[in-house]
Design goal:
It is built from 12 helices and 24 strands. It is an alpha/beta fold.
């Protein structure tokens, strides 16, 4: 072990061995490079600021990441019935102030939904609960539950350091940090391509499209949008953007596979292919993007502004790299940076740490790694909440079993496809599929209060659209008579 790594380890050991409320410790802020090694270490002049839990006697559950896995685990814990002395304090940490219902980000581009409907504030969602929330970014973890489940009643089994310098000690930890777009796959992607996986990404893409639309390109100089990747995300994005641009632009979709959505049900893939063809989306299948670069027209005085590249290929885990005080305390990660878990969603070797969503690498009985989808995260959150209840109350934990309910894909403002798993060969597409998809997602929104608000909003918009459509039809009939 290098001298710098040893210094960091020593600091963590001192933190782990802290007794009482001794604040005279020195904390080493560790900045980790992309390879997981120690890139820079600076010694703080003052002791770290410890998060003060409301009750020192009750269990402390810290949930890192407020996506589907993290937020829904917190809400699940809130909904369970607890003995008075066992109900845990739950703290949710996320770097954003918004929860984002990612499957409906495409509707922001089409104007079908408002941002508040699919990206409500955590403060609003948690207002009527006992769940605490901190907006901050996780910088460092030092778990110590590998030393055993049993210990002094008030001893911490680990902690996490946030970017602000706040140190949160916990008794139980849930990892649900999600993933971010992997733009370092080919040269130029980081500089010239826009990802589409967060609320900020969606806003940037929408702003860029608005800028291009204002320029009013002629038929000889159309807006050209290139979507890299033809999985679900790429196809949904291509369908949404092509519908929005109509005859003002050309959308191309590139995929290394010889088909779109290779893992999708046949009905969904067939419906998507039909829609893309009707909107004249150019499919470049069997092609690999080697680089992305900007080409300047030597005859023009300005750089070209009509091209937009959208990147939907690959993602990388946001699970922080660790420099633990002892090698055995390191989390077991797979090649994608996901924590390896047992069937109860506990991280291997860490009985007090659970991992859900993209932070979890769990294999089914057939050896297949569970896909990192919203549907999987929904179900894992339910089990993680229950298993935390069971562990805190010394009850048996339940093994997680994924139930595939089917797959859905949006294809525009009034178009979608759904292939439910409980009816083999059935696919609902077009307006019927669109309505079924929105209802399914309405039911999945986080809280009853938010579901009610969004349901009323969608119903009102639908009524307004119906009236406008009726008026347009009547106007055409009258003008033709």
């Amino acid at each position: 072990m290098s001298s710098t790594a040893f210094a960091a380890s020593a600091a963590l050991l001192r933190l782990n061995s802290r007794k009482g409320k001794d604040r005279s410790l020195l904390l080493l802020q560790v900045h980790l490079g992309g390879n997981g090694g120690v890139a820079e270490i600076s010694e703080a002049e003052t002791a770290p600021q410890f998060y003060s839990w409301p009750d020192e006697k009750k269990p402390r559950v810290c949930i890192l990441g407020g996506g589907f896995g993290g937020l829904y685990t917190a809400l699940r814990l809130e909904s369970l019935v607890w003995p008075d002395d066992k109900k845990p304090q739950v703290l949710l940490v996320d770097q954003s102030e918004h929860f984002v219902f990612k499957p409906m980000l495409y509707e922001l581009l089409s104007g079908e939904v408002d941002a508040w409907e699919i990206a409500p504030h955590f403060s609003d969602l948690l207002a009527n609960t006992n769940v605490l929330f901190i907006q901050d970014k996780v910088k460092l973890l030092y778990p110590s539950d590998h030393l055993g489940m049993n210990g002094p009643a008030k001893s911490s089994v680990g902690g996490s350091v946030l970017e602000s310098g706040l140190l949160i000690e916990y008794d139980w930890l849930v990892l649900s940090l999600g993933a971010e777009a992997k733009l370092d796959v080919v040269p130029g992607a980081l500089e010239f391509a826009l990802p589409f996986s967060t609320l900020e990404d969606a806003r940037k893409v929408d702003l860029r499209l608005r800028e291009l639309e204002r320029r009013k390109f002629s038929k000889e100089s159309l807006i050209r949008v290139v979507v890299v990747g033809c999985g679900y995300a790429g196809v949904e994005l291509a369908a949404t953007v092509s519908e929005r641009l109509q005859d003002r632009g050309i959308v191309q979709a590139i995929n290394v596979e010889n088909t779109i959505c290779p893992n999708a049900p046949h009905g969904n893939r067939e419906a998507a292919t039909k829609v893309l063809s009707s909107r004249k989306v150019e499919l470049l299948l069997g092609y690999f993007v080697r680089c992305i670069r900007q080409v300047v027209d030597t005859e023009a005085s300005e750089k070209p502004t009509k091209n937009l590249v959208l990147w939907t290929v690959g993602s990388k885990s946001l699970l922080p790299h660790l420099e633990p005080g002892h090698r055995r305390s390191a989390l077991p990660l797979n090649g994608s940076g996901q924590a390896k878990t047992d069937e109860t969603l506990r991280v291997n070797g860490h009985p007090r740490i659970f991992a859900v969503g993209y932070s979890s690498a769990l294999r089914e009985s057939n050896g297949r790694l569970l896909p990192a989808t919203a549907q999987v995260a929904f179900q894992q959150a339910d089990f993680a909440g229950w298993n935390l209840w069971a562990a805190i109350n010394n009850r048996p934990l339940l093994p997680f079993r994924f139930q595939n309910l089917g797959e859905m894909i949006t294809l525009g403002r009034n178009d979608a496809a759904i292939s439910p798993s409980f009816v083999e060969g059935l696919t609902l597409d077009g307006p019927l599929g669109h309505t079924a998809r929105k209802l399914a997602y309405l039911i999945r929104l986080p809280t009853d209060e938010h579901r009610l608000k969004v349901g009323i909003s969608w119903l009102t918009k639908s009524a307004i659209d119906s009236v406008a459509s009726l008026q347009s039809t009547l106007t055409k009939v009258i003008s033709n008579s």
